[in-house]
Amino acid sequence: FFFFKQKTAYEMLRSLVGSEMCIRDRWYQRRVHGCLLATLLVALQSQHILNNYKADTIQQDTYKIVVKASYFGQDHYWGKPTSPISRSLKITVQFYCDKHLQINIESLDDPQWEMPMEEPFPRGSVYQGTTENREYNIKITKWPLAFQIIRNSTQETIFDTTVNTFVISRYYHEIGTNLATDRIFGLGQRAYKFQLKNGFFTMWNKDSPVSIDYGNYPGGRQTYGSHPVYLAQEKSKKFHIVFLRTTTAADFVIQHGKLVYRLVGGPLNFLIWLGNESPEDTIKMYHQYLGGHMLQPFWALGFHQSRYGWPDLNTINRVAKNFRDNDLPLDTLWSDIDYMENDVDFTIDNYRYPVEQFKEFLEEYNLRFVPIIDFGISIGDNDAYKEGIEKDVYIKNAWGKNFVGRV
């Protein structure tokens, strides 16, 4: 009868987990001021690098293009000395099928952590067909380094980094694409208009579902879940999807007919799908890459009641009784962290939620119960915290210490 809801970095599909644990101290307070990139962006005002990378070699075969590039600018760092500019890059364009490709940009002199290309993370399979029927063509500009993705059937450019800032450093990346359309949808999970307009949109989960994000400068409204993907309708009415496969904090800036990506490090890994005139068909290609949707159990399609603030089993019992007394259908109850002992993960407060009585209650009302599991592990004398320390599983801060946040 017990099922656990986990809050993950993407919180979308079983195949897109990306969940990382941090430690939380319920008494520790630290104010996060707006966008995480704000400090770096202030320091960038005096630098006006546009694109100082040049392609040294370009190699192509049936399934991919590999570009090695070098930095020829005079600046040694971006924003501050602790963020040196990468001087050697490798750009790999992988052809997965006639409508799907991947562009991966990585630093050769300063490698950074990348989401593994293995289970449970989504990944593509190498295309085994020919290149004759590809729906797209790739154009590489050597100097300054840029690339364009062109749809062969309409000659529309769907991704274009020419005449855009291109910077790769340890703690700041920036790359932009010219937008051939203003019909852009996605970059969630945020409360905003269905069609994205000009604005500054931050992607760094804040666990704040009620914030309205108007895209005002400098951004920083943040999101409840991270979906760094957008759907675009071209002038030909055909659709394409661009997914940035990353787990780092990012700004997405839409203005002047451009979409600019600003990230605090990590590789730049873009996956692109070229669809038809149907947005549903295009989105299906993206979902297929993610691994598809898990088939829900039958009871999950029923009637659910969820809330934060049920202090004890007696309260939940009254809720269920009121549903029954008023002939209202109820199949499942969802609870927040109220059932825990002192808000500690993997515990049950047996005084407020006696387990045996809880089982009897669920059987009496024929209900399922879904308690939340919070990915902030409480600091203190508890098994989860101790085991995390022993196995060294927590996120590290800039000084290599366990990251402490407030949940």
The fraction of residues assigned to DSSP E strands is: 25-35%
Q: What would the average pLDDT be, to the nearest integer?
A: 83
Class computed from helices, strands and strand pairing: alpha+beta
Q: State the strand order across the main sheet.
A: 3-4-5-6-18-15-14-12
Number of strands: 23
Distance between the termini: 27 Å
Please estimate the helix content: 10-25%
Count up the helices. Answer: 5
The best one-word shape is: globular
The helix/strand series, from N terminus to C terminus, equals: EEHEEEEEEEEEEEEEEEEHEHEHEEHE
Could you name the ranges where pLDDT drops below 50 across 5 or more consecutive residues?
1-47
Biggest sheet record: 8 strands, antiparallel
Radius of gyration over all CA atoms, rounded: 24 Å
Would you write up a description of this structure?
The protein is of the alpha+beta class and about 400 residues long. The protein has helices at about 40-45, 280-290, 315-325, 355-365, 385-390; strands at about 5, 20-25, 55-60, 65-70, 90-95, 100-105, 135-140, 145-150, 155-160, 165-170, 175-180, 185, 200-205, 230-235, 240-245, 250-255, 260-265, 270-275, 305, 330-335, 370-375, 375-380, 405. It is globular. The model is unreliable at about 1-45 (pLDDT under 50).
